[in-house]
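Consider what follows.

. . .
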Amino acid sequence: PSDVPTLRGGGGQIATLGAGSNAARPAVTSRDGVIGNWTAREATGGSCRVQLSSAPALDLYRASAAGCSNRDLQKVTAWDYRDGEVYLYQQGGTVVARLRTSGGGAMDGAVTKSGAALSLSR
């Protein structure tokens, strides 16, 4: 049982740093906090790798996905962090997925086109 609150909706900002016994894995609350390699869990039960880079790509940052079965996820080339949410983009600027940070350094969201659930963890 974790006592770290989960962010729900956009209204109330909840600071989770230092809360709970999971201090080694602070909640992801900034752009810098999401840079790196993630394991994506797809709705089909499969998993694949997603890398969020700090390298700029126009107004966004570079991203890549490897081994994903979802066709849209395979096309991820960029990402951005806005208002507590991570947006994954494909070439041309279409949003592939939106994810909201949750406790324990994970992110939960959905693939935009299909609505299929998607979660990222370290």
Summary: The radius of gyration is 14 Å. The longest strand covers residues 47-57. The helical segments are 31-34, 71-74.
